[in-house]
C-alpha cells in the first residue's frame, strides 16, 4: 500500500509595522508564506503549487493575499529576521525621540489658558 497526499507549511517571513487597510490602525502585520508539497509516506518531497503570501494584522486579525513581488518589496523595505529596520520613507511623520509616537502632542496654552492649570 502506498500512502501519498499533500502537506502545507506556513513560514513567517517578517513582522512589519503597517497601516491596516481594514481597521485603519497602525499595527504589526505578519508576512507569511504557505508552501504546499506532495508527500509520500508522510515525507514532503516537492512543491505542487506556487507559494502563497499573505499579510495578517495583529490588531484586528484581518488577512489579505499579497503577490510574490509585493512580498519581496515589503521584505526589502521592512525589517527581515535579524536585520535593522530600513529608512522611513519621505513624507511620513517621524515619531518623537524617546516618546510614544501615538501620544497627543502638547498644546500651546492648553484649555486653561497660558500657565494656568486647575491642579496647581
UniProtKB/TrEMBL annotation:
Residues 1-30 form the signal peptide. Residues 70-120 are annotated as: Disordered. It comes from the Bacteria. The keyword Lipid metabolism does not apply. Residues 99-120 have a biased composition (Low complexity). Residues 19-67 form the Zinc-ribbon domain. Keywords: Signal. The keyword Isomerase does not apply. This is Zinc-ribbon 15 domain-containing protein. It comes from Streptomyces oceani.
Amino acid at each position: 500500500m502506498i500512502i501519498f497526499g499533500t502537506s502545507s507549511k506556513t513560514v513567517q517571513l517578517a513582522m512589519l509595522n503597517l497601516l491596516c487597510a481594514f481597521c485603519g490602525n497602525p499595527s504589526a502585520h505578519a508576512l507569511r508564506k504557505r508552501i504546499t508539497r506532495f508527500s509520500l509516506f508522510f515525507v514532503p518531497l516537492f512543491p505542487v503549487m506556487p507559494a502563497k503570501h499573505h499579510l495578517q494584522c495583529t490588531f484586528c486579525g484581518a488577512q489579505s493575499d499579497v503577490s510574490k513581488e509585493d512580498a519581496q518589496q515589503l521584505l526589502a523595505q521592512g525589517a527581515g529576521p535579524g536585520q535593522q529596520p530600513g529608512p522611513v520613507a519621505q513624507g511620513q511623520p517621524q515619531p518623537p525621540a524617546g516618546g510614544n509616537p501615538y501620544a497627543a502632542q502638547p498644546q500651546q496654552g492648553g484649555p486653561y489658558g497660558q500657565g494656568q492649570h486647575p491642579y496647581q
